[in-house]
Write a structure and sequence with these properties.
The chain has 744 residues and is mainly β. Among the domains are: 14-34 and 41-296, Purple Acid Phosphatase, chain A, domain 2 (4-Layer Sandwich); 308-401, Immunoglobulin-like.
Length: 744
């Protein structure tokens, strides 16, 4: 993770509370506990909200949240939990506005977990979140575990990925989650809160939901509260209830919060969930709370877990045979299965699912799933067990489909997520992880052992080689830009830029001298590439996380004000021109719909840039006036020069080979990919297109024809791969940290 994560213990544990005050005093004074109730029956209330998306420029949304928080305050709950997307884009002014809205009486009994809107556009590596929310008032440490005085364990794992819409239980958070559950005991009931629904038949949000399920399975997790979908849904599986809440962002219709009431009465321990509507005008009468669901915290989970599961592909590759074995006496009514839909990226299956019933076979169930349309590589199948009383158990099994050609030559685990693009020069490949491990390889040697490894700060942005290949530049969220000797990994220098370095460095020449140009926070820096000395800086007052371009005279960079700026490469105070690329008038819209994260490509006298809504060709000699534009989200996949043409692909896989000066397309093609990070690598007339969903496709640059080569990673990919050794070796890194090398 980017920053150390510690449990937030501003609420006393049950043991601490009873030791300090005695059980009777605790029940008499705890907010949300009925003081007149008998000792054997007690009631505790909690409140849950999500997707507040605070933006002070949107006044009706601010007013709605103010009204909801006032209504929550009137209920006097023991705990208030915000399920993420606290802000619209992670800006400091939005966090400040949110904190200002929270009544004083609720501070000290709140918990928060980040959402994708808090992470995706954040240039601070969560430091802004920590500054406002990771304290005793707001309880927003990004991995929080607390026990309320009634003995209920609340656990809030952060499943977001910095600068991404992707969701994954990474290794440090997995260890933290398992440890938090273990410390609080296998028998204590637990409520988990995450922004995205981590489990559910149609939910494909979490890249490794099977790891999440395995981590929580030994413990008494009985409920998961989440948001993200902006719609209320209740799902029951694996002995727990998943409740997705409505969004407070939606200020029309039914606005309110979720009231959770726990009643403990002897052996009875029930948590009921209701939605409380909040009238936004005095003329509107308050409605009665609407029942949502009821969760039995004391119930044991039906024993539906298969004793064994096997899966294998038949000789033709057309069928996936799945078998689940059970012990005698397990209350199993039926078993069905389907192939995991690997094409869904951080979403849900909106088209419905076709489950294949498995047939009773001795002490288990077995059946064949259609598998012929799947490419070779890593796949998953979902097993769904239904009990005799209607309970559901869900489990995921991994299987590898064999195939001819494009099989991995070697694999190497980096130990943690690879977020940044792989870098290569003259046969040397360098990869970096979010834990700060940087390793160099010689892929063509056929060995996966690193040539060297160096530990620095966490790396989220692209590495860059010097022109001669002797130095590697590594930006880190620990505030430094590092220069490493490419041969040995020895640190040559590091420069502290004062804030996390989350943008991609450009290594270029100005007046014949090598320079490194990159953003850190809201400031563009030019550093001497040999010494790390800062030559100049330009403060823009807004963030940028892409990569600049330079022609030796001007530096061209997309910024979070919705504009591309062209500034003097020697005197950054001089602006040659700016070009606004979005019609959004609001601060949030100009950031998220502008070129804040684009890789600027110079093609002749045209700058090719992308935004969330369009791709552009800007005339460098005409003040950046657009020569052409194409609709589509072209901000994620960097454009690539192909001779004198440019290959550009939007996030939905729409590919074009265009004349950069006119925008005229040589051809267009639609690839079955989703691109939210990995870039394209080319070799001659071929391009390797790597989908965020883990598949690799070969694109013919002459015609636009394409074919799928392999499903190389089941957990998804956000790092750009590399072609090494004279373009004969293709190397890719998954979110699981696994490097794989293929013969190209």
């Amino acid at each position: 993770m980017v920053c150390p994560m510690t449990p937030s213990r501003f609420l006393p544990s049950r043991r601490e509370f009873l030791q300090a005050t005695g059980a009777a005093a605790a029940m008499a004074t705890l907010p949300g506990v009925a003081s007149g109730a008998a000792r054997s029956a007690r009631t505790t209330t909690y409140a849950f909200i999500s997707d507040t998306h605070v933006d002070p420029e949107i006044e009706d949304r601010t007013a709605a949240l103010r009204a909801v928080l006032a209504a929550i305050e009137a209920k006097d709950p023991a705990l208030v939990v915000n399920g993420g997307d606290v802000t619209d884009d992670g800006s400091a002014y939005q966090y400040q506005a949110y904190c200002d809205l929270v009544p004083d009486s609720l501070r000290g009994r709140m918990l928060h977990v980040p959402g994708n809107h808090d992470a995706r556009h954040d240039a601070s590596a969560y430091e802004t979140w920590d500054r406002f929310l990771a304290n005793d008032e707001f309880g927003g440490a990004r991995n929080s575990s607390v026990v309320t005085p009634d003995g209920l364990h609340w656990c809030l794992p952060d499943l977001t990925v910095a600068q991404q819409s992707a969701v994954r239980l990474d290794e440090p958070t997995r260890d933290w989650l398992g440890g938090a559950l273990e410390r609080n005991g296998a028998d204590r009931p637990t409520v988990i809160v995450s922004h995205h629904p981590p489990m559910g038949d149609e939910y494909y949000f979490l890249q490794n939901s099977e790891t999440f399920a395995e981590t929580i399975q030994p413990f008494r997790v009985r409920a998961i509260l989440c948001g993200h979908m902006h719609a209320e849904r209740v799902r029951r599986l694996n002995g727990l209830t998943v409740v997705a809440g409505k969004a407070l962002k939606q200020v029309t219709g039914d606005i309110g919060f979720y009231l959770l009431t726990r009643v403990q009465d002897g052996d009875r321990d029930v948590l009921t969930v209701e939605f409380v509507s909040v009238p936004l005008t005095p003329a509107t009468a308050a409605a009665e709370p609407r029942p949502v669901t009821s969760i039995d915290l004391a119930a044991d989970v039906a024993d539906l877990e298969p004793a064994e599961i096997s899966a294998g592909v038949d000789r033709t590759g057309d069928a996936l045979t799945v078998r689940a074995g059970f012990d005698r006496g397990q209350p199993v009514a039926s078993v069905s299965a389907l192939v995991y839909n690997q094409d869904i990226w951080v979403g849900r299956d909106k088209d419905g699912q076709t489950w294949t019933p498995l047939v009773a076979d001795g002490n288990g169930f077995a059946g064949d799933l259609p598998f012929g349309h799947e490419p070779p590589g890593e796949h998953r199948a979902i097993l769904r067990v239904e009990g005799t009383s209607g309970e559901i158990w869900r489990e995921i099994v991994t299987v590898t489909k064999p195939g001819d050609g494009f099989a991995p030559m070697w694999r190497h685990s980096m130990g943690d997520m690879v977020h940044s693009a792989l870098a290569h020069h003259d046969g040397l490949l360098v990869a970096a992880t979010v834990a700060g491990r940087v390793s160099a390889f010689r892929p063509g040697a056929g060995r996966s052992r690193p040539q060297w490894t160096r530990r620095i700060g966490p790396v989220y942005s692209r590495l860059a080689f010097a022109a001669d290949g002797g130095t590697i530049y590594a930006p880190s969220s620990d505030h430094h830009l590092y220069a490493l000797d490419a041969r040995t990994g020895r640190e040559l220098w590091r420069t502290d830029l004062g804030v996390p370095v989350m943008a991609d460095p450009l290594v270029t020449q100005i007046d014949g001298e090598p320079q490194a140009i990159l953003f850190a926070g809201e400031t563009l820096y030019c550093l001497d590439a040999g010494s790390g000395r800062v030559r100049w800086r330009r403060d823009f007052g807004v963030r940028s996380m892409g990569r600049a371009a330079c022609d030796g005279e001007l530096v061209y960079v997309g910024v979070g004000d919705g504009r591309v700026h062209a500034i003097d490469a020697r005197d950054p105070r001089r602006t040659a021109w700016t070009q606004l690329l979005t019609d959004r008038p609001d601060t949030h819209g100009r950031l998220t719909k502008g070129p804040w994260d684009c890789q600027v490509l110079l093609a002749g006298r045209t700058a090719v840039v992308g935004t969330k809504d369009n791709g552009f060709g800007l005339r460098l000699d005409d003040g950046g006036t657009p020569a052409w534009s194409r609709p589509g989200s072209f901000i994620f996949c960097p454009p690539v020069l192909v001779g004198s043409d440019v290959l550009t692909i939007d996030e939905a896989g729409h590919a074009l080979l265009v004349d950069p000066s006119t925008g005229a397309a040589r051809w267009e093609a639609s690839l079955p990919v989703q691109l939210f990070g990995p870039g394209v690598v080319t070799r001659g007339s071929d391009a390797y297109v790597t989908s965020s969903t883990g598949s690799v496709h070969l694109l013919d640059l002459r015609t636009g024809g394409h074919r799928e080569l392999r499903q190389v990673c089941k957990e998804g990919i956000i790092a750009t791969p590399a072609l090494c050794d004279g373009d004969t070796t293709f190397v890719v890194a998954g979110m699981d940290g696994m490097l794989q090398a293929f013969e190209a």
